[in-house]
Amino acid sequence: MAGRAGRSHQELAARLTGLAVRAAGLLLRISVGLLIFCLFALVASQVVDRHLVRLWHVDSAEEYVKVGIVWLTFIGLAAAMADGETVRVEALRNALPPAFRRVLDLVFDLAVLAVLVITLWYGWRVFEVGQYQTILGTDFTLAVPIAGLLLGFAACVLVVAARVVRLVRVG
Asked: Exposed, middle or buried by CB within 10 Å (0-12, 13-18, 19+), for 146?
């Protein structure tokens, strides 16, 4: 009886973790879509500005697009990780029995988690320094693109940590 209750508790935890990862993935995909829409609008406004009507007081739309692309890259990475769509070499993994696959997945996820945490740790210092450096032609400091990296990697940490919890609980 106690074994069955423990198993159902683990299954519930695994379902909730999976649901949280799917919800985070949906939120991240929506964010990616909004970023793409905003970048498209910026580029379109730049075309209008150059050929029809002056919209920008200075030629800074390109700089805003560059910052948006940085955000899109790291938020997009988190969305891909949440959907399990990151690039991996699976030749070795597919040759292993299921129990070893879970161990290999756990080891790789822990390694990715370590790299993400280290990058966040040092990225925070870069963010602090970047607050005092202006991006020419914009009202932004270098902290703005670094914030995209930090937010994207923080989302990646949550996604990978949820995968690790699911692997440990189910595995």
From this structure: buried
